[in-house]
Design a protein that fits this description.
single chain; alpha/beta; TIM Barrel; 4-stranded antiparallel β-sheet
C-alpha cells in the first residue's frame, strides 16, 4: 500500500511545565513545540518536532523549524508517492543536520501509515517485543539538595524503576554522594549534557564510588574519540546521547569503545527508520539501549512508547507519565505509569491515543496549512 501525503498542517503550541526543568543548559518553564499533522485524504498521522526553545541541545530550536519545514521539507514530501513510510527519510537526507525537524515529519507519516493500515504504530515499525515498557524518570537540577532528595523519593514512591539526575560542575560528586547515601539501592544514573572535558577526568573518576548505572554524555556534544579515552579510565559505563545522530555514529562509537550503552532519541536521529538502524547495530554488538526524552507532549511520548517495544530497549527509559510535566496533556487519556513503574502498550491504531482537539487548539500560537 502506497502513501501520498496531500496536505500538512503545522501547529506551534506553547504549554507550561508543571515544574521548571533545569539542565547544564539552563531552566525551562514552558515548552514551545511544533506539531506536524500529515494527511492522506481524510486520514491523518501526527508527529512532534522535539527540538527545544534554544539551540543548546543541538543546532535546532523552535524558531528554526518553521521555515525549514515550509521551504525545504514539505515540498519534498507533499504529493510524492511513497511505497511506505520507510522511504520518507531518503527524501530529505540531503539536508545537513536538522534531524529533529525532519524526524517530526517522518514520524507523522509512520503514524499515518499505521492508521491507514488500521494497526498500532508499534506494529507498523516492526516492534512489539514487549507489551509493557519499564519507566524511569529524569530529574533536573534543583534549588537545593534537599529539594532533589524529596523529588527522588516522590518518584520512587510512584514506582519508577530508575532515577536519572542531571549534573554539572559544582553540582555533581557531592550531590551524587548525598543521593546515594539516602537511596543506596536505587538504579541511579547521572546525565551531564556535555558539561565536562577530559581535563575533568580525575574528578569524574570519583563518580565510580557510587555504582551508577551510567554517566550520560559527559563530554562534548559532537565527540566520540575523547569519550573513548574517558571510558577506558572509568569503571562506570558511559552512555552516549548527543553525539549519536546516526547508525554510522553508533557503529563508530562501539568500534572505538567510547561507550557501553547508547540512548536513542527519535528526534536526534531523524525518526523511526534511523532509530531502528541504531537499535539493530547496538543489538548486534550487545550494547543495550534505552529511550531518551526531550520534554515531549503526549504525541512524542506515545511515539517513544512504540519505539521502546523494540527488543534491545532493555533499560528503563525516560518515558514517564504525562502528569509529571503537564497539568493537562494534549492526548486522551494521558500517559499513565503503573505502581510498578511500567506503561502498558495499547493496540489502538496509530500512536494509540486520541488528540484532545479543543485543548490543543487553545494552545496554538501559529498554524500553517501546506498543500
Amino acid at each position: 500500500m502506497g502513501i501520498k501525503v496531500d496536505r500538512i498542517i503545522l501547529r506551534h503550541i506553547r504549554i507550561p511545565l508543571v515544574h521548571f526543568f533545569e539542565t547544564s543548559f539552563g531552566r525551562t518553564f514552558d515548552r514551545d513545540i511544533i506539531l506536524v499533522e500529515a494527511f492522506a485524504g481524510d486520514v491523518s498521522g501526527w508527529g512532534e518536532v522535539t527540538a527545544g526553545e534554544n539551540p543548546f541541545y543541538n543546532e535546532e530550536w523552535t524558531g528554526s523549524i518553521w521555515p525549514l519545514l515550509i521551504d525545504y521539507i514539505a515540498p519534498r514530501i507533499l504529493k510524492h508517492e511513497f511505497a511506505d513510510a520507510g522511504e520518507v527519510n531518503a527524501r530529505t537526507e540531503h539536508i545537513r543536520g536538522h534531524n529533529m525537524t525532519r524526524g517530526g515529519v517522518e514520524t507523522a507519516i509512520w503514524d499515518l501509515e499505521a492508521r491507514l493500515k488500521n494497526e498500532p504504530l508499534w506494529k507498523a515499525i516492526g516492534a512489539g517485543a514487549r507489551h509493557e515498557i519499564p519507566c524511569g524518570v529524569s530529574i533536573g537540577i534543583q534549588d537545593s539538595v534537599e529539594q532533589l532528595l524529596e523529588k527522588i523519593e516522590t518518584e520512587i514512591n510512584a514506582g519508577y524503576q530508575r532515577i536519572k539526575m542531571k549534573i554539572k560542575p559544582g553540582w555533581d560528586v557531592d550531590v551524587v554522594r548525598q543521593v546515594r547515601e539516602k537511596f543506596p539501592q536505587i538504579k541511579l544514573m547521572a546525565d551531564a549534557n556535555s558539561a565536562y572535558t577530559l581535563a575533568d577526568i580525575d574528578h569524574l573518576k570519583k563518580l565510580d564510588d557510587f555504582y551508577l548505572m551510567m554517566i550520560e554524555q559527559p563530554l562534548a556534544h559532537d565527540d566520540i574519540i575523547d569519550h573513548a579515552v574517558l571510558q577506558a579510565a572509568l569503571q562506570t559505563p558511559i552512555c552516549l546521547d548527543e553525539c549519536i545522530r546516526s547508525a554510522h555514529h553508533a557503529e563508530q562509537a562501539i568500534r572505538l569503545k567510547a561507550c557501553r550503552i547508547i540512548n536513542i532519541k527519535l528526534g536526534r536521529v531523524g525518526g523511526f527508520g534511523e532509530a531502528k538502524r541504531v537499535h539493530d547495530i547496538c543489538q548486534t554488538n550487545n550494547v543495550p539501549v534505552w529511550c531518551g526524552g526531550m520534554l515531549e507532549s503526549g504525541i512524542g511520548r506515545a511515539h517513544n512508547i512504540a519505539l521502546s517495544t523494540l527488543p534491545n530497549f532493555v533499560l528503563p527509559g525516560d518515558v514517564s507519565a504525562s502528569k509529571r510535566y503537564w497539568k493537562r496533556d494534549i492526548i486522551v487519556p494521558p500517559v499513565e505509569v503503573s505502581p510498578t513503574g511500567t506503561i502498558t502498550v495499547t493496540d489502538t491504531p496509530g500512536f494509540g491515543y486520541e488528540i484532545d482537539k479543543d485543548f490543543l487548539e487553545s494552545l496554538v500560537v501559529r498554524q500553517e496549512i501546506l498543500f
